[in-house]
Amino acid sequence: MQRRSWSATDPGQVHGSNHDGLFCSDEFGVYAVTDGASSEAGEFASRFMLQALTDRVPALHRAAAATAHAEDPSRARRAVFDALHSLIEQANTELYGWSRDDPNLRGAATTVTVVVLAPAGAFVGHVGDSRAYVQRGGRLQRLTEDHTLAEEMVRVGKLRREETGSFRYRNVVARTLGDRPLIKADLHYVDANAGDTFLLCTDGLCDYVADPDIEGSLAELGVLRPAQRLVDLALRQGGGDNVTAVVVSLAPASELETRIAMVEPSFHPTRQLELLGHLFFCQHLTSDERMKVLRYVHEVQVQAGGIVVRQGEAGQDLYLVVQGCVEVVVDGTRVTTIQTGGHFGEIALVSGQKRSATVLAKENTRLFRIGREDFFDLSQRDQGVAVKMLWAFTQSLAGRVTQLSRVVAGHQTHPAKSPVPVTDR
Q1: How far is CA 420 from CA 81, 311, 404, in A?
Q2: What is the domain extent for residue 331?
Q3: Of 303, 305, 338, which is closest to residue 322 (Cα–Cα)?
Q4: CATH number of the domain enclosing 347
Q5: pLDDT at residue number 125
Q6: In what order do the strands lie in the sheet with 358-361?
Q7: Of 198, 255, 253, which is closest to residue 221 (Cα–Cα)?
Q8: Residue of 371 and 161 predicted with greater confidence
Q9: Which conformational region is residue 294 in: left (phi greater than 0), alpha (psi within -120 to 50 degrees), or beta?
Q10: pLDDT tens-digit profile of 369-396?
């Protein structure tokens, strides 16, 4: 997919200086915005983060490009996440050290939102209250969550969403680069389609321009300088802060290079987190813990009649049906169907043994897939989350063993009846 970007920044109507920063590279497919803290050192922090990114751009591009034809897509995707995490973590460590040791750099902190485009998607790294959006099919979707005091209070139930607009401390940023020794960055992946438009912006834009107005502006990319148009709109609405926008358009192509046919736009990360919360192996995880799991979840889309797994083939993946329905077939005989919310393949995830059944889509179906190596990597990084997931797996397997025992007992009592096979697939 061809990409083209536009960018614009302005100090706004109130501030004399501009602590915002931006980075655009259509050649490498890397884009970012930063927003330095209000202190004098904020501008330094913003520029430092962009310089750190500039130094890593070729490596980020190589890692993202390698996801296209990788023998192990999961490993390739983790490499991009690791590169983003390393970039943000190292920049935070250096900024925090300078802020402590140099009186002139006290308060050196900044937000950062980075998008790295891959052949079939986009990797997002995010800290603070700048934002990333994608506009697809005329609909604007937010890809990031604001790390503000107001949003934190909404998440823990101490503030209602409709109250955030009048909340006294709604603009207090709860998480930035450089204000603490350890930083927690949000990292996730979103599928990208030809015709998509990405927007990265600082809060000087989204605080003054409502989402419907942003959506309307992005729908008219034929106008000159779309990023400048958004900045001008924020200035006309008050412009009380530095304002920055980066717009990236993916040119339509006749054919998408994707391994699985697309049936409709993918879920964005906020929706993915919500869906994970309803699935058996994530029901007991907190929102932060589900965010960690989301790094390892691959979204698979299969058209009606398509085969998800084939009997006799080696398998190492667990699948969860998030939309649609699949049919389980053993030796040519239909065994059962699995509806939305169901799952299959936990034995394969643990043991890697051959599939005991063929599973095919009865209708256009979307699934979440997590691989064995992904789960092992998660186990090493966060044992607490892995233990909760393993406990859920154990409960699921115990239920299947109980079901099998009842079937066997019923067969022994009524030998004329044929037992219903129970498969781990």
Answers
A1: 44, 18, 9
A2: 272-413
A3: 338
A4: 2.60.120.10
A5: 97
A6: 307-309, 358-361, 325-330, 333-339
A7: 198
A8: 371
A9: alpha
A10: 887 777 777 777 777 887 887 777 777 6
